From TrEMBL:
Its EC number is 6.5.1.1. It catalyses: ATP + (deoxyribonucleotide)n-3'-hydroxyl + 5'-phospho-(deoxyribonucleotide)m = (deoxyribonucleotide)n+m + AMP + diphosphate. Its cofactor is Mn(2+). It comes from Paraburkholderia bannensis. It comes from the Bacteria. Keywords: ATP-binding, DNA damage, DNA recombination, DNA repair, DNA-binding, DNA-directed DNA polymerase, Exonuclease, Hydrolase, Ligase, Manganese, Metal-binding, Multifunctional enzyme, Nuclease, Nucleotide-binding, Nucleotidyltransferase, Transferase. This is DNA ligase (ATP). One of its GO terms (molecular function) is ATP binding.
Amino acid sequence: MADSDSMLARYAQKRNFETTPEPAAHNQPPRRKKGAPSFVIQKHWASHLHYDFRLEADGVLLSWAVPKGPCFDPKVKRMAVHVEDHPVEYADFEGTIPAKQYGAGTVVIWDRGTWEPQADTQAGMESGKLVFQLHGEKLAGLWELVRTSKPGDRQDKWLLFKKRDEWARPLSDYDVVKALPDSVVTHPLGLLEDREPKVTAPSKADAALPELPAAASAPLPAKLEPQLATLAASLPSGGDWITETKFDGYRLLARIDGGDVRLFTRGGHDWAARFPVLVKELKALDVKGAWLDGEIVMLKDGLPDFSALQNAMDARTNRDIVYFLFDLMYLDGLDLKKVPLWARRAWLSALLENAGDHLRLSEAFDAPAAAVFEAASGLGLEGLMLKRRDAPYESGRSQSWLKAKARLRQELVVCGFTARGGKDGEIGSLLLGYYDDAGKLHDAGSVGTGWNSRTARDLWGRLAPLEIKSTPYDVTAARARRWSRRASGAERWVEPHLVAEIEFAEWTADGVVRQASFKGLRLDKPARAVVREGGKTSAPARPTAVKITHPERIVDASSAITKADLVHYYASVAERMLPHLKDRPIALVRAPSGISGELFFQKHAERTGLPRLTVHERALWPDHPPLLSVDTVEALLSAAQMNTVEFHTWNSTVERIERPDRVIFDLDPGDGVKWAHVQEAALLVQTLLGELELKAWLKTSGGKGLHVVVPLTPRLGYAAVKEFSQAFVRHLAKTIPQRFSATSGPANRIRKVYVDYLRNGVGQTTAAAFSARARPGMGVSMPVAWEQLPELRSGAQWNVQTAREYLSFQSVDPWADYWSHEQSLSNAIKRLK
C-alpha cells in the first residue's frame, strides 16, 4: 500500500480548500476511534454520475470510483478505479463542490457503516485482492475487490463484486442502486442486518420443538402490554419475515393461571365474561400458566368480517367467534419474550394441536410477501402482518412487526355529528379526530356512509348524551372545513370518548380522510390511544406490489426504455407525484405498442378500464360519462402496468369540479426559437404575474417548453379563469410581440413562444408534475425552483432514466409552499382590464 502521507498529499494537491467545502487533509493521519473501521459510499454527480467507495484503514479512506455502483448479484462485476486516499473526515461530507474545482458537482452519502477485512488490509492492497464484510444501511455480507490493471497502466482498475452468501441476490430481482437512490443522511434506514436479519429457522421436516436458551425463569406476570405493529411504507424486499393475515377483529391477550382465565383488551379491560366458550377452551389447554396473544374474529364465507363481529358482540350468544392466536409470551414458569418469534410460534403450534374448535393458530404463508399481498387484496382481506422471524416480543410499537394494509383503515375518535336531514333521531355524519404525540386533538374530517337506519339510530343514542357546546378540537383543518358542504351550524359536538373504525381512500393534504366509510365502533380501545398512523405530516403509504406483464417490452426504441423501466420510475416517484394527481379528474395517454405506435387518450371508465382508479359519477353537465382519478400508489402503478405513459390532470378537484384551483401557462416554443428565449419568456411571464401580485411556480414540460403554474383559491368558475388567462396572454403578445404569440398554429409562432391559455378551459388538461412524455427520450415534467431556470438546458432535461437520480440529490422541495399558498384573481382581473 502506498505511503498514506503521499496519498493525502495527492488529495490536497487537487483541491483549493479556500473554495471547496471538502475537508482539508491532515499533516498527520488522525488516530482511529475504537471499534470496527468505517466505510462510506458517496454518490457523486460530477461530469457523470458515479459512486465513491471508501474503506477506512490506517487513518485514511482507501477510495475507488465505481461508475455503476455496487450490486448484490455475484455474477455482476462492477469496475472500480482506485483513486487517491481521502481523509477520514471525508466520510461525513455531503455538499456541492463548486464549478471549476476538482470533482465539481453534488455529493451525498449513499451508504455508510462499518467493515471487517477478512485478511490483512495492507497485504491485500499490495496483492490486489481485498475480501471484506460490510455492515451498512444498504449493503451487507461479503464483498471482494480485485485488481485487474497491470503495472504501468494509466489507471489502477479493480473489480468490485458480491461474494456468494445469504445476502446475494440476482440483479433481475433487486437492483439496490435503483431501489434505494437517496442519501442515508436525509433518509436514514438503519442497519440492513437489523431490518432484514438472516436467521436460519428449523426445517419443516424437524418435528422436535426448538430449545429455548433465551427463555428466563420468572413468575407469571399480572399484566402484559401487547406488541404493536408499524404501518409499512412498502413490502419488505428480502430478509427473514413471517407473513400472516391481518385480521379484521378485536385484539385480545389471554392470561391463564391454572383454572383462572382472563382476556384483556388493548385498553386493559377483562372481557373473559363475554366469551365463556373461549374461556372454556383456554382452560382445557395443557398448560399451568401462560400469556397468549391473538385476535377474535367472525368469519363470513371463510373470511373475517368486522360488521359480523360487532353484531356477535352485541348478541346474547357469540359461540361462533374464533380466537386466532399468533404469539406465546409466557409458558409454565418461563418468560419467552426474548425467544425468537419462530421458536415461540413452534411452541404455540404444539400447544394448540389438540385445542377446541374456537382456538386456532394464525397460519404463516410460505410464499413471497408481494404474491400474498396481491392475493389478500383480491380476497378483500384487510392486509398482511409481517414479523421478523428472529424478533423478540416487545411491548409497544416496534419496527419488527409491520402491517401492510390492502385497504387504508384505522381507528378515529368521534368528536361530533350531524343529524340526518337536519332532524334529531338518526346520525347523518360523524366528525372525526385523532391525537398527536403532544396530546392535542386534530380534526380528521368526517364520514357519512357505512351504516343503515338501525345503526344511525343506535349511534344517535350513544352520542346525544355526550353532546357539548363547543368543538373539542385543538387543531382544526380549517381549509377543509371552509370548503366542505356542511350546512352552517349543523355540526354538533361531543365529548371525545368513542372510537370508530374507518375505511378510507387517502389522507388529504389538509390532514383529513377522503372517501371515508364507517365500519363500526371500537369498544376495545380508549380514545386517547388513537393517533394517526403513518406519521404526522404524511399519509400512510400503502405497499407498492404490482406484477408487470411483458416487462421487457420496449416503450421507446430511441432510448431502449422498457415497460419495466417505466413502471419502476413511477413507483420511485409515487410519493412525490400523488399530491399532483389525487382528487383531480385525469386523462391518460396509453401506448400499448410503445410510443412509436398508436396512442390513445382515456378520460372515462370503460369496460376495458383500469383497475384501482377512482371512478367519479359527478360532472359539469348531464349524461357526462364518469370521470377517473388516480388517488393511490396502486392506482398509479396499475395505470402504468396498463401501458399508461402520460398523466394529464384538470385544473380543479372532483370536490369543487366547477371551480379551478390553479391557472397554467404552457410556454410552447415555435420553430426557430432558441432555448435562451424560452427561459427569457418564463422570466417575463413571472415578472408580469408578480406585477399582478400573483406568485407562480415553475416546472419543465418534459417536452420542448416550460409550465408556469399559479395556485388559486377555488372561488371563480372556469369561464372567468380562462378569460383572465386569455387576457394575460394577449397582453404579453401585444406588449412584446417579437417574443410572444397569443395565436396557435405553427405559422403564427415562428421564432416566437406561444403561451397556451386554452389549457385553462373546462375539461382541459396538462401533463402532471413527474409525468413522463410519450416522445423519443421520454422526458419528464419536473418541478424546479425559479433559481434553477438559468441552469436548465431544455424542457426535457430529465427523463425516465435520469429523473430519480436527480431527485436523490435534492434536499429541498421547490414546490413545498405551493400547496398552502392561497391567492385570488379578482384584483389581477381588474388590473388587466
